[in-house]
Amino acid sequence: MPKRIVIIGAHAAGVDAASAARKTDRTAEITLITEEKHAGYSRCGLPFVLAGHIPSFQNLIVFPPSFYQMMKLNLKTETKVTKINAGNKTVETVDKTGKTEALPYDSLILATGANSFTPPIKGKEKQGIHSLRTLEDGEKIEEAIKNGAKTAVVMGAGLIGLEVAVALQERGLKVTVVELLPQILPMMLDADMASMIQEMLQIKGIDILTGKGVEEFLGTEKVTGIMAGGQQINADLFVSAFGVRANTQLAVDAGVALGETKTIKTNARMETNVKDIYAIGDCAESTHIVTQKPAVQQLGTVAVRHGKVAGINAAGGYALFTGVLGSAVTRLYDTEAGVTGLTEAAAQRARIDVATGTITSKTKADYYPGARPIKVKLVVEKESQRIIGAQIIGGEEVTQRINAISFAIQKQMTVRELAKADTAYAPPVCETWEPLVLAAEMVLMKLK
Amino acid sequence: MPKRIVIIGAHAAGVDAASAARKTDRTAEITLITEEKHAGYSRCGLPFVLAGHIPSFQNLIVFPPSFYQMMKLNLKTETKVTKINAGNKTVETVDKTGKTEALPYDSLILATGANSFTPPIKGKEKQGIHSLRTLEDGEKIEEAIKNGAKTAVVMGAGLIGLEVAVALQERGLKVTVVELLPQILPMMLDADMASMIQEMLQIKGIDILTGKGVEEFLGTEKVTGIMAGGQQINADLFVSAFGVRANTQLAVDAGVALGETKTIKTNARMETNVKDIYAIGDCAESTHIVTQKPAVQQLGTVAVRHGKVAGINAAGGYALFTGVLGSAVTRLYDTEAGVTGLTEAAAQRARIDVATGTITSKTKADYYPGARPIKVKLVVEKESQRIIGAQIIGGEEVTQRINAISFAIQKQMTVRELAKADTAYAPPVCETWEPLVLAAEMVLMKLK
Description:
Two copies of one chain form a homodimer. By secondary structure, the first copy, chain A, is α/β, with parallel strands linked by helices. Chain A has helices at 12-24, 46-50, 65-70, 135-146, 159-170, 191-203, 249-253, 300-314, 344-349, 398-410, 415-419, 435-447; strands spanning 4-8, 29-33, 73-76, 79-85, 90-95, 100-104, 107-110, 114-116, 129-130, 151-155, 174-178, 207-209, 214-218, 225-228, 231-234, 237-240, 244-246, 277-279, 286-287, 294-295, 328-332, 335-341, 354-362, 373-381, 387-394. Chain A has twelve helices and 25 strands. In chain A, helix 1 (12-24) packs parallel to helix 8. Chain A is globular. At the A-B interface, helix 8, strand 21, strand 22 and helix 10 of A face helix 8, strand 21, strand 22 and helix 10 of B.
């Protein structure tokens, strides 16, 4: 009898799991279930459609129906899983017509994702508070813009919040960003690096209010303003980008244990505590490569890597997940910002004694036209002199510099080794002394 | 008495050595000697001035006179060192007025560089064969273009040859490149990767003749054509880009030993076999990080790294050079090409049993406008599964991908570790599955 693999969730994690399972077992019956109308689209692309860089939300559907046919995957959209019976190994579903079904599984993969989260703020039940998690969310914001919204408030200055703020500003709206913490991108960058992005955004015309919590949503039925830090801000459009919360209820009800990050606890094979149930993507916990502690990194790259490992294992193969570093990058206007490993603040929270070094250099030879500034901050564990984190802000090649440092961290490179590293150079693409190497030099000077 | 440090050569290697020596010893008397009129300019930038990307050759002077004043460096231009007396520790010089001098040294650093080399081809004594090694060389080619040259032949399809060919074509000349070997970029890329660049250059209108040696320079006093592979090619401008030869005669005459690469043998402190004499840059040998054998990499990055180590040691400090990988990159039109470590061909020559993997992907999310193709070839040592080389061709972020693999090689990352690596992603800057990771997957499939 063919192996029955059921996957709850059909985006980055779920689809990559299905794909890996298919490659591992050509005969397995693989079913993907999603509550959403559209499966297999790139959530990370949503802000860039809003910004107008990408013509349509439909362009984000990276796995079209033909993919599921070719891979012989059974896709059930607009179908909700109401219960997991770990005892008799079935999942109960209900589709949009109300039809219920009990699907048996040999392996179950939970890719239930996360949902946008709005804290319990007075008036949050009012209409008109948007978020940007699904394709439909994007279409609703698009509609609001097309209906003439001229001003917007974005609540939360994390990655998504800022990407949305930039998108709205690029579409001509006057945008205010409100952030409870004293800096923008608090999970991604140290305050000294974040201030550079904040200044850039302000120069572009985005109002940024840090250290201000949203206290109330104003308006009768529909939100027309917020109170933040005692200040009233009215707008036509409100976007909640406070963050996301993992969808774990279904798992918890089935006896699946959560870890200390309140996401589903997994081992290196992405197995949960319940036999034959795996968890992947935004709902699943990983181990951090530097701290070796549980960590949750709700990133597309982690989702696909999780998915691949779980898919192979669920189909009877063998694969291990090697942990996360939280490598992430974005582009806001023409400035790129990236991070890998621990920020200085995160290292301090983890009680790791660090030295840091920050330098500013250029992305091309100084004499080559179009050379742009780039700023690198390295975080180094003092005793071992190992690199444990980096933050980079600049106009070019930030992503691959982040990847280079990610590799360095994963292979326990010391800051001295980085200061001596063999790097490539040509005037149109970089400086003779690579900025990463200069940042390593800076740390070494401090360590002397 | 202050330490007397004499440096022969005043470009990348020499100036970085002087700078490092000064930072190590605030009181040393540091003298830089060069035969050239201009010191401290970027040779790597020469083709890009010719191309018209950079306004003037003068822009390439990255260390202006004020630098030497600020660093208290004694710079002697248009001065030739005629002899090194290792016995009484002096160098004999003659300046452009014919004045001779004997300069005593405590430490001597040889940064004598390399010169363009034209093989013993019939008629090579004729006028009008240009090369592009010095600022004056560049000015002469510029003059030829301004005097109405319409056609050019570039002899040699290495990095410099192709950069010059592109520059001349961008300036409107009809360019033919002649290469003895059956492929372009023979020292940098495997034939399968090089063919991609060759096609691109041909589409841009450059004629490329591979597998054809230059047999004769034609013309009476001045070269007006060449015979190559039995074919006569006439042109207005001829550029010799056969390669460079290290300038070692001065060193050899002083008893300094050469290594098996015919460049000056050095140890990890960049010391030669003669006490207190160091050698750096294009005239000096290094150890290859992968093969652990003597290697010569005449690159700007190696020169400055050599210089720094020798400068510190010559001034009484302690620094070690950790070897070369030959990481190099160029941009031809809007295509970047890079290499680090061993090519497949170089690995075979070194009798290393390898597996390779080549993939083509995109530089941005498939749906993001402007995504460009990128091709990655990984070379992996079969038994250890360690990455020992990579070649990358694409439109964006090739340099930092090369650096990422360079770090991976230096830290002995296996191809399996790369296939599982944590990488950063955002739609405008890369794909979810990093091309480097996909190439690693491809190698793993072959290793199964």
